[in-house]
Design brief:
Elements: H1 2-7, H2 11-42, H3 45-52, H4 57-62, H5 67-95, H6 100-134, H7 145-158, H8 160-168, H9 175-196, H10 203-209, H11 216-222, H12 237-247, H13 251-260, H14 275-278
Helix pairs in contact: 2-5, 2-6, 5-6, 5-7, 5-8, 5-9, 6-7
């Protein structure tokens, strides 16, 4: 990936890539501190129980974030990083006006390298730290990496060609870019929570649960393409409220909504993290 970046770059790309790197680094440091802080809190309750005398300090110190939630947080960081990096690269290809076939080839090469690097240096590194601090094993939690891979495939098929065109027209980047990243990551986080409970949710399940018969409004919303005054295309305020409401549901609530609408969702056992994938690279 480094060689490709050296051959193809623009000042705008460097700014976007640096922003993606910095956002991940800041978020990852906070995540690591949170994992370590949870360990410190649960090591000190015996002395604090005697001092607290039932004041409630014990329960605060004993409270720890579930391991599954920490894995989802790590997945959110990795997903957001990949979304920002891949979109920055696709837009750069457009800015350099690289022919379509060559741009596609360069993009797919970059996607593969970015995924491998993120899996090895970010995802697996974070999991190893979590397992060490919490005394877990690789089989303790379901493997959420396939959900992240699905989100990248969706991005390649539906979003990155649009980013290349944005680059060709030197389109200014503003709130829509941030909304696209945030909303896409929100969808991936929801799918990850469902996956941990053994359900593989698709985009179709999400937009049908809201009552839509087509995917049009959902993909407008997911791409950050909101309806402007006087325009008939784009996601409405109601779309934004409805999709965010559904994506905040827990598993039981979402399953009830699907059942009420007679939408089937099969349950399957999610794969666990293997030693081979965790130690890869």
């Amino acid at each position: 990936m480094a060689n490709t970046q050296q051959r193809l770059t623009t000042p705008r790309y460097e700014v976007r890539k640096t922003k993606a790197d910095r956002a991940f680094t800041d978020g990852f440091h906070s995540w690591l501190e949170g994992v370590d802080a949870e360990k410190i809190r649960v090591e000190r309750p015996i002395t604090l129980r005697r001092l607290a005398s039932g004041s409630g300090l014990d329960s605060d110190m004993a409270d720890r974030k579930p391991n599954s939630a920490l894995v989802i947080d790590l997945g959110h960081l990795c997903t957001s990083y990949l979304l920002r990096s891949l979109r920055a690269y696709a837009q750069m290809l457009g800015e350099k006006e690289i022919p379509a076939l060559q741009a596609t080839a360069n993009l797919m090469e970059y996607v593969t390298a970015a995924q491998e690097e993120t899996h090895r240096r970010k995802w697996c590194f974070g999991l190893r730290h979590l397992y060490q601090i919490r005394g877990l094993t690789a089989a303790s939690l379901p493997n959420l990496w396939p959900i992240i891979e699905d989100s990248v495939r969706d991005l390649v098929q539906n979003d990155l060609p649009f980013d290349i065109e944005l680059g060709r027209h030197r389109a200014p980047l503003g709130r829509q870019e941030d909304k696209r990243t945030d909303r896409h990551a929100l969808v991936v986080g929801f799918k990850a929570r469902m996956w941990q409970d053994g359900y593989k949710v698709s985009d179709r399940h999400i937009w049908r649960s809201v009552g839509h018969t087509t995917s049009r409004q959902f993909y407008y919303w997911k791409k950050g393409q909101d309806c402007k005054k006087g325009d008939t295309k784009g996601a409405t305020n109601a779309d934004n409220r409805n999709f965010r409401r559904v994506l905040a549901f827990d598993t039981d609530h979402f399953l009830k909504v699907l059942a009420d609408r007679r939408i089937s969702l099969n349950k399957g056992r999610p794969p666990s993290n293997s030693k081979r994938s965790e130690n890869k690279g």
